[in-house]
Amino acid sequence: MGGEKRRLGALALAAGAAGIAFSAVLNKTILEEGLSPLWLNVFRLGFSCLFLLPFFLRDAGARKAFGTLTRREKGLTLLSGLMLAGHFASWAAALAWADSLIAASIWSTFSLLTVLGSALFLGEKTPVPALLGMVLAVCGVAICAADAQGARLLGVAMAALAAVTQAVYTLCGRAVRKKLDVLPYTMAVYSVALGALLLAALLSGLPDAVSLKGLGVSMLLALVCTLGGHSMQNYALRFYKAPTVSAVFLTEVFTGPALVFFILGEAPPMSSVLGGVVILLGVGWYMLYEWRVAHGLVPSRRKPQECAELPQ
């Protein structure tokens, strides 16, 4: 990699990680304005699609790309959008009912679930470090949920659902992104997710009121986290291997709760701290293994796990 490309890749990684870091605090700020997790993400994805639309319409190749997809690939794109909708809604619900540290820690297990899904559905061999990481992560989730009751326990469940839907979304993306570039894939998936969330939100009832602050922060969430964070991640994948990019973006597990603490004054309980540390040990163990494989430090017959976006 040339010096200029290395600098561009590093800037993309730094900008993307910074954008993702604000996900928890912006989500919580909007939730405090009275918007439900469904309506929050309707506005978030609505603004995201609106910002992407001019670029999509101007790119003839992006518009024609869908015609090259098989029926199976179109089905996977549809499933990917539905999973993204489920992820966004469950992630916001987790932040509404539980502290940001427990939500982010449990969400980080999606990387291990992706490996498990690859073994179950794609016939890929699951490496031993991934199995050890899964055991540690499950223990960490159990610690987080040990004293959880009522709404907090529901928040733990929503964080787990966010991890599962993220993993399925990632697996779908691995298949479709082999043929579609970032722009048409992102536009298609975001549009499907927006439609699904809008339908679910309308069925749940209209919001009592939508404040200008809520709309403004939703726009920030779309610009800073969805486009600034995830678009930069996809750009960084041109210069760095997937395990490196994934490891950098998992810093959100620390930076997100830290911003929530300093900006909103929310301190996580000790069980979240202990459980989060155990979860991150499991995820970190596996990410270190993937990084070593990607750099040829560990002999392996398998390729490092590819990743789609990390749509926090």
UniProtKB/TrEMBL annotation:
It comes from the Bacteria. Residues 8-143, 154-284 form the EamA domain. One of its GO terms (cellular component) is membrane. InterPro entries: EamA_dom, EmrE-like. The keyword Flavoprotein does not apply. The keyword ATP-binding does not apply. The chain crosses the membrane at residues 39-57, 78-98, 104-123, 130-148, 154-172, 184-206, 212-232, 244-264, 270-289. It holds the Pfam family EamA. Keywords: Membrane, Transmembrane, Transmembrane helix. Belongs to the EamA transporter family. This is DMT family transporter. It comes from Candidatus Avichristensenella intestinipullorum.
